[in-house]
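Troubleshooting entry. Yesterday's outputs looked truncated, so today I'm pasting the complete records for two proteins to confirm everything comes through intact. If either block looks cut off, that's the bug. Protein one:
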Amino acid sequence: MDEAEFDKFAAEYRDLHAANIRLSGESPEYFAEYKIKDIAAEAARTPAALGGRVLDFGAGVGYSVPFFRRHLPAARITCLDVSQRSLAIGAAKHRGDAEFRHFDGATIPFQAASFDLALASCVFHHIAHTEHVGLLREIRRVLRPGGLLFVFEHNPLNPLTRHAVSTCEFDENAELIMAPTMRARVLQAGFGSARIRYRIFFPAWLRRLRALERGLTWLPLGAQYYVRASS
């Protein structure tokens, strides 16, 4: 994981992201919030996660923090990232709402079983694929037994997603990951009962159809997907 690569986009991340996803008709906040809403719905089935410790792995400037506060208000959030510049921006903006910690790209600076839930939001496509299983094992180490992992990623099978990634400055070195491949790596890292859910099928101008999306999570055409697993 290259700290310098993420540092150079820290201050302008939101504007670059907004320009990149303009074809969707939505803002970066829409994409950040839907993930936390999905996590909150899943965590409701595991009460310990609702008020537990959450690790936001690769959190950047803490874009998800306001949505954790809204949808999982009792959770204690730790934002972890290799980019010290991103962490400084996030800590200044979200002071008191989350802890911001630097990560050396290899070892998460917490003891085993420190967290109840972990999120990696569109992070792994920035990381060399040879490092995935090792980092997932490290996330599993800091999750308590039975803790939940959510790995959200862009879906390479969606043509609009491929276009957005190929034209995005901060995705210049990205390598997209097929959902079954991501699931296999999660299982290889020692997680159990990993399952895939596909998300984001309709752009803003078809938002009236979004009520149908809950019945389409099996269909591998969504713009994004997540793998949900337990430690």
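Protein two, checking that the full record survives here as well:
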Amino acid sequence: MEKPAGGVQSVERALSLLEHLAAQDEGMRLSDLAHAAGLTVSTTHRLLTTLEQRGFVHADAGSRRWHVGRSAFAVGAAFIRQRNFVAPALPYLRRLRDATRETANLGIIEDGEVITLTQVESREITRAISPPGGRVPVLYSGMGKAILATWDDRAIEAFLGTYHFQRKTPHSLTAPAAARREIALIRERGYAVDDEEFVLGLRCVAAVVLGPQGEATCALSVSGLAVRMTPSRVAEAGRAVLGLAGEFSGWLSGRP
């Protein structure tokens, strides 16, 4: 791995290891982690040993797999604490999950992507889950499009002028004109839909949550398998998520 311009190589490498471990709930063996990060086994072990001393990773003696440690969780939890709407959102997410029987999510836009901050999983045996911490480009996300639609037209045009349109699936938005039509539709009906635009077989319905000044604070969404999220169920989910996002907006604004 080459040293990034303006960066510290050892720090970049250590953070890369943490990112790879965070993506694997079952942990990773040393050799697999080294291969994924593009590092030698010896360098990987040296970095992991240092991270382990600070509690950012730990090794399971039985499986010989490395996992994210408690210190990494503490740092990540600080990010959540700074968003003081996350904990209050949970009752609304549970109600959304119960109303739709699908996974309910809370997300924000950061650096041109949507980050899922927390979620309440569906009780269905097969369910659609993008884990907390996951990032999705704005225009491939129901939550991203719901937030984007609240921006003024000048800000939207500036965003579209720098956005990298790519075809993730046959349903993806691939041009500014298509994005503008989608935004107009979202403004008209009040909620946004990700219709298998990022992952085939997955649909998501989202609505924006407004803060005290009427600004887009975050978004609520419900995501489910496309075979269950039929057009009629998408409409039902849209009404549910729009209603609960409105209630949560009222709570944040002190106007329940």
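Both blocks look complete. Sanity check on protein two: Residues 9-74 form a domain with the Arc Repressor Mutant, subunit A fold (CATH 1.10.10.10).
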